Amino acid sequence: MQQSDLNGILLMNKPQGFTSHDVVAKLRGILHTRRIGHGGTLDPMATGVLPVFVGGATKAADFAAAQDKEYVAGFTLGYCTDTQDVTGEMLQTSERYAAEYAVKQMVRRFIGPQQQVPPMYSAVKVNGQKLYDLARKGREVERPARDIIVHEMDLLDFDENAQKGTLRCKVSKGTYVRTLVNDLGEKLGTLAVLHSLERTRSGAYELAQCHTFAECEQAMAEGTMQQLLLPTDSLFTDRPAVSLTDEGAERIARGAVVFPRQTDSLPETADTICRVYHQDRFLMLGQVRELDKGGLGLFVYKNFR
């Protein structure tokens, strides 16, 4: 298979110790193509679902990064580090003991919209500089809090003797789970670090769908790599689908508005984002908008052709 033939979304089970960029770099070598990007950074310590976009599908990477994520996180109470996880240097210890019922009650209080201050060891930029670059120089700067949503957060288990537990959380874009753990420790009157993290879901993609480097190497050797790639529109299954007539496809190709009669059924709510097809081929994301003269029309939102 030629490198230009590969197109779609490859779900990788990111191994521990790899950065997300490491995964992309290794896949460039395996797949023999440079048109690869990832959707949603994972820390080197973390494992789990990492959507990787190949060929023309790279246009969709930013949409994956913006979707909700689900994690299973292991935490330890009693100390904290400069990175908020076990890879960092210990800063402080606490002898404060937490009971399981107290941890369970506190975990429930994290559910909902809130603001989170990103950790210094993160790729967030402040005044054009990445925080982790500043942190490695021993500098700490004020970071603006960001709006996040914790949709779900459960305590799966907690060992009172070891002061170790496991959380499952579903969170919005930009949420740092290690910061949630750090904040949990503070609210319990003690300290906490993240000691393990697995992303179990990214958008609609689950861990069970993911592949390994070895599987990719074997598929390339057998010429079956394309079979491991999901179509780009699988990223948008939560969006309504619209099929265009030949006339509608011709109009959208030149950037003109498509009228309801040139579709099989246009959503009746303005600002709706939908998947757009012609003869079963995915073309783009379209947006329904109100027209100046009344009625609704379909406009290009993101082209994937």
UniProtKB/TrEMBL annotation:
The keyword Isomerase applies. Signal peptide: none annotated. The active site is at residue 43. SUPFAM superfamilies: Pseudouridine synthase (SSF55120). Residues 28-177 form the Pseudouridine synthase II N-terminal domain. NCBIfam families: TruB. PANTHER family: PSEUDOURIDYLATE SYNTHASE TRUB1 (PTHR13767:SF2), TRNA-PSEUDOURIDINE SYNTHASE (PTHR13767). Belongs to the pseudouridine synthase TruB family. Type 1 subfamily. This is tRNA pseudouridine synthase B. It comes from Butyricicoccus faecihominis. The gene is truB.
